Amino acid sequence: MTNDNISLENYNNDPCLGDDNELFDETTLPSTTKSLLKDSDTSVTLDFMESYNKKSDTICEEILEKLGSFNPYSLFIMLTMATLWGLAAMNLMISAFLVDPIYAQNSSNSIFSTFNLTDNNSHLATLFSSSFMFGSMFGGAIVPVLADYFGRQINVAWCTFIIGAAGCVISFVDKYYLILVLRFIQGFAFHGTISTNWVLSYESVSVQIRSFSALVFGVLWVVGYCIIAPLAYYFTNWRYLCFFTALPSLVFSFIIFLSIPESLNFLISKKKMKEIKMWLKNNKKFRKLFGKVDFPNIDNLLRAIPTCQDEPSLQNQETLSVGERMVKFFKTQKLLLLYIFIFTFIWATDTVIYYVLSFFSTNLSGNMYINYILSGLIECPSYLVVPLFLDYLGRRGLTFLMHFITAIALFLGVMIGQDQHIIYLLIWLIGKFCISCTFTSIFVYGSEIFPTSHRNTCLGICAVISRLGGAIAPYSKNLDTIWPKLSIVLFASMSLIAALLSLVLPETGKIKSLIRKKKENF
């Protein structure tokens, strides 16, 4: 799963953390809380505070709780947005087959033969993958800003439409450079179908089912990931494969335009009372379709919204320009700069290894379609075990262990070689499972380690820079022209370095439990 999958827009409400993941200024902590933290063995390296003011997200959660955890309208929104992850995976992972030389040899019409990408030009085929990644890098920096300004729903709908339309147009283009432009456009819109849609769902469902929704999103990502294999087997003409991979996104965009509302939290934060009332009325109508007539009084629900007041500290912060805030940040947050560097390296390592193990699973010995499907299915267990690992091993422990095992697995793969097909495949899948675990958990860790006032900035920097890992992943096979095992050795080394760097980071899981205990006793 790509880690664009959890938005950089709402890290103060990470789905895996709940309400007690806030990392604020320690000077505002009650004295009893400070004492509790000082008496513990945990070294607190960041500033903390507990905020008791009622914010828009709190009001939204209270309304959603009154509507019920398994409110049909919210579930419909969640399932629709989760389906987008599957469609996004299809548009991304099509590269695993289209730019594979072995697949091209068995195709009736390949991208290699159509554009004469042979001999000295064969490396240009890799641009089909990397142009998408470069587009994602730029889109990841711009799309969230547009979603914050214009809203989540319109952002998701247009991004889905753009990905689908651009993918369908690719099927009819006769110039390779135009295909690369269209792939860049697809990548640019990718963030809206993998991150903004998560935010829309997250802001429309109750707290009780957010962990469940994360599982649903992950499973549907794997479904979209794996379905590429039978499509590639059936459509041996690359134009048909591109068209029928993108067409579902194009069709689905109209469903989003017509049936999906704006997120409730966004409407509350913007004080759009008319739209909020319409959201609640539609919820009531949708509820009746399932035979549920009980519904809270809408007027009573609306009364809580005007009481939402912004904190003065946030108001004062908004008077600073973006440039002024960035200058102040880099001058005063030396420790955070170290954490940003480490997280960026870890994130980039996870990104490049994830895509290498995904894209090049078709190059393994044996049946390329089965190998590819297995590399997708191995992600499913990670969504189930990561919450347990986070609690048992801690954030730092999980990050270290999974990167260390990945490094060992890749080094073993170098020594064994593909001659031992079954063993090599098992090692490959172990590496894919471990890197999927770290990919899933890194947002939890980052959400806790960075303070709320800088969380969006810190994780935004890490995410944008780390996407370079995805952009260079398709080129990694070029290293094998120097030495056939050079690329795997490089990635194993990167994973080992990431494991060691993670030991520099503080353990936040224990701090989180301390704050939760304090809240329970407050």
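The record above closes out task 2.4. Task 2.5 opens with a second protein, given below.
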Amino acid sequence: MAVQGWLERAGSKPGWWRGPNGVRVGWRAVMFLLLLVVFVFAEAGTVSRLSLPHPAAGVLLMPGFVVFNEALLLVPALLASLVMVRLEGRAFAVTCGVADARHTRRCAAGAAAGVALLGALALALLLSGHAHLALSGLGGRDIAAYAIIWAAVSLLIGAAEEFAFRGYLFQALGRGGVWPAIGVTSLLFGVVHYSDIGEGLIGVGNAVLAGGIFALLIRRTGSLWASIGLHGGWDYGENFLFGAHDSGQACAFTLLQLSPVGVPWLSGGDTGPEGSLLATGILMAAGLAILLWRKEASG
């Protein structure tokens, strides 16, 4: 059994492993990532025995598959966080950035902002002639049903990816400096997106930018709930409201269908809106708005 507070013990003599505040933050980040990888591979090995089908490129993603896929990240992220929190002897909610009495309001506001940002991107693509918008054919009660289903799924996507990249990991690295923490977690976010089916270089760059925006929002609000909402709102707009490709794949049962028109570096091509330089501009504007919003949250 791990000894509670082991990571917090100061070294008798400061060195590369321990400092006056215990094990240095860089090594804590490495430990978390190693745990995350171990748990992901252990989980993947177990799931592989089930021989479940994986959708190929071009196949519409069903809500159930997305839930299953995101759970494969969320569960290991939570387990790795719990181990690290135990080793630090700290409270889970505080250490992972979810100790927020206004969590519902933060998450809802973030989600609204995420939908608005994706809507602004879709509008820019349409007005510039780099996208075509059509009804998907979904109607009647199905619209209401899948609007709710995809809202829940999108929040799960936000929760899984935010916990993995900007929960314990960002909070731990932030003790050694906010900007290095933003840089490291954003680059990792981009690297992981590079492995996605149909992801292009512009899309990877935009993933790095988005990671920075999520981290900045956490720093401004002091709450992971805000970034979970923003992340989920963006995905909800992309996956359900506009039915666009996301990293090369589209979802089933969407409200609209946003299709690319013209050169991929402006339309996003098969990657989706995130692969467009117009997305780059909107993300940069969003990042600047967060920077100018108000003073940083304490801690």
